[in-house]
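User: Please predict the structure of the protein below. I'd like the answer in structure-token form so I can feed it into my own downstream comparison script.

Assistant: Understood. Taking the following sequence of 144 residues as input:
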Amino acid sequence: MIFSHIVLVLQSVPEIIKFVQQVLASPPHSMTQLVLISDLQQRRRLMEQAPHFDDTALAKERRMQFIFKPLKPSKFAAIFDPRKEREMSTDRNQDSAQQVAVSQKQVYEEMIRRLGNKNKRVLLVEDNRVNQMVSTANANAIRT
């Protein structure tokens, strides 16, 4: 049987290497894409133990791709639903983060409208590193 995709979840790095070699060497599976469910540590061990796997080239050729744990449907969407036609393909946490960024931008725009060019300076205090980066990017975008 020929598969379009094979999703592989194995703990043993030698077993992964053996399976990947078998699929990549199989002419009937020349168009089969391997999807390896892994964490960063396991991926590093795999690349150390199998340096002959050029994961960048294999990803470009759509032969092998990693999906990192924790798993959620939106991570599989990049492979199985790239146009995000199904509801499960959208990461709701990402949507809410984008909504926060939009509302933060609106707050900055309102501040600029109120304070205008009145030579005022505003200090932003934010304890979350990601929010700091988003806030800084929004502030810079509004200034330009």
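That's the full token string. Helices lie at 13-25, 40-49, 55-60, 73-80, 92-115, 129-143.
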